[in-house]
């Protein structure tokens, strides 16, 4: 029995409609004859979401007592026994009540997938583990429930459910997300336009990173050497000279023109250790590129042009930024120089600075 397929609806913010989208997909699958059940879903008393449950088979929940109260969780054993083709499991980052089969709902989902059941689930961008600190700095709210990024990245399909901050705030004001007594507080705090814009940008950038990962994997498997750029990734070739600071700033400006642009500064060192580069200057440039949100890389290679091109291809660079050579005419007898060699050997655009 093969592993089940995993599909996730990733919400840019609470209330964008990821659960509604998941239920819409379930109805489409049922109409096509697919055996699809609701393993666990929270409609949060939202009328439109609740209506979408009509006509779908729901697996009864398992009740657990904890500290004098009764809670309901997904009944993993019941879902496994029913063994549908597809199971809907809402709120992937949820923490189960102590005494449950697993500590986290994503672990429940792993069991279903391992049993050959396809799973469709939902999660909001603020619940991804790697973004917890960033989300807290934006919203002032610490997320108590998170899911490891790798669990989400392993999904066979991820669909971003997005909505403009203005439209989401209108949904909130109309009472489509929270009850009336909570609307004003939500609009004044978590659902401020600035917060929603930042969360939306986080979601877009996280998904863009995932696209880059897929492109890298595909290029490797199919031995594709041509550069495919899903976003700007700019490599800066450094020599250790003071012009490197200008090159780094130029690359940062180029990266800013595209959403999610990335700067990678690279210094190619000879294997014998011989160099004219200033260690102090390289340290300054490392700090500069990191302050600008980029990364610094130290690569060993006796052929600077080849090493630089290999690095750029390996990271799927879209542009290479180099300094203009000030070689005297007679020096070209020994070769065309790094800049010309890189430009000739690369199909990616190469920028130069004096």
Write the layout of secondary structure elements.
Elements: E1 6-11, H1 18-31, E2 36-40, H2 47-51, E3 57-58, E4 62-66, E5 69-73, H3 76-82, E6 86-89, H4 105-114, E7 118-124, H5 132-139, H6 149-153, E8 157-161, H7 165-173, H8 180-188, H9 193-221, E9 233-238, H10 243-256, E10 262-269, H11 279-291, E11 295-300, H12 304-314, E12 319-323, H13 338-345, E13 350-353
Parallel strand pairs: 1-7, 1-8, 2-3, 2-6, 6-7, 9-10, 9-12, 10-11, 12-13
Antiparallel strand pairs: 4-5
Helix pairs in contact: 10-11, 12-13
Radius of gyration: 26 Å
Range of strand content: 15-25%
Work out the helix count.
Answer: 13
Through-space gap between termini: 62 Å
- From the 3D coordinates, which CATH architecture of the largest domain would you assign? 3-Layer(aba) Sandwich
Oligomer: single chain
Number of domains: 2
Average predicted local confidence, pLDDT? 84
Structural class: alpha/beta
């Amino acid at each position: 029995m093969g592993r089940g397929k995993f599909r996730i609806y990733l919400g840019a913010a609470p209330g964008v409609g990821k659960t509604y989208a998941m239920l819409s997909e379930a109805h489409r699958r049922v109409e096509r004859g697919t055996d699809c059940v609701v393993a666990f879903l929270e409609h949060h008393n939202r009328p439109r979401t609740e209506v979408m449950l009509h006509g779908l088979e729901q697996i009864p929940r398992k009740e657990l007592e904890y500290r004098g109260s009764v809670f309901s969780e997904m009944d993993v054993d019941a879902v496994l026994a029913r063994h549908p083709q597809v199971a809907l499991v809402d709120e992937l980052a949820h923490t189960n009540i102590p005494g449950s089969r697993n500590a986290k709902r994503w672990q429940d989902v792993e069991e279903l997938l391992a049993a050959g059941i396809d799973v469709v689930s939902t999660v909001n961008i603020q619940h991804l583990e790697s973004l917890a600190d960033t989300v807290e700095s934006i919203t002032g709210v610490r997320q108590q429930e998170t899911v490891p990024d790798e669990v989400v990245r392993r999904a066979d399909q991820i669909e971003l459910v997005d909505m403009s901050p203005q439209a989401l705030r209108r949904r909130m004001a109309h009472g489509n997300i929270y009850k009336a007594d909570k609307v004003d507080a939500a609009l004044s705090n978590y659902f401020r336009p600035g917060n929603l814009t930042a969360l939306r940008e986080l979601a877009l950038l996280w998904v863009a990173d995932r696209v880059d990962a897929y492109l890298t994997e595909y290029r490797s498997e199919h031995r594709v050497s041509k550069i495919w750029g899903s976003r700007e990734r700019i490599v800066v070739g450094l020599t250790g000279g003071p012009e490197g600071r200008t090159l780094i700033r130029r690359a940062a400006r180029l990266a800013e023109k595209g959403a999610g642009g990335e700067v990678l500064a690279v210094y190619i060192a000879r294997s014998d250790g011989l160099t004219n580069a200033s260690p102090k200057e390289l340290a300054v440039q490392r700090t500069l590129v990191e302050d600008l949100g980029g990364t610094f890389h130290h690569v060993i290679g006796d052929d600077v042009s080849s090493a630089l091109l290999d690095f750029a291809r390996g990271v799927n660079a879209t542009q290479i930024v180099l300094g203009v050579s000030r070689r005297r005419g007679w020096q070209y007898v020994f070769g065309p120089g790094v800049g010309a060699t890189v430009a000739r050997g690369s199909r990616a655009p190469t920028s130069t600075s004096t």
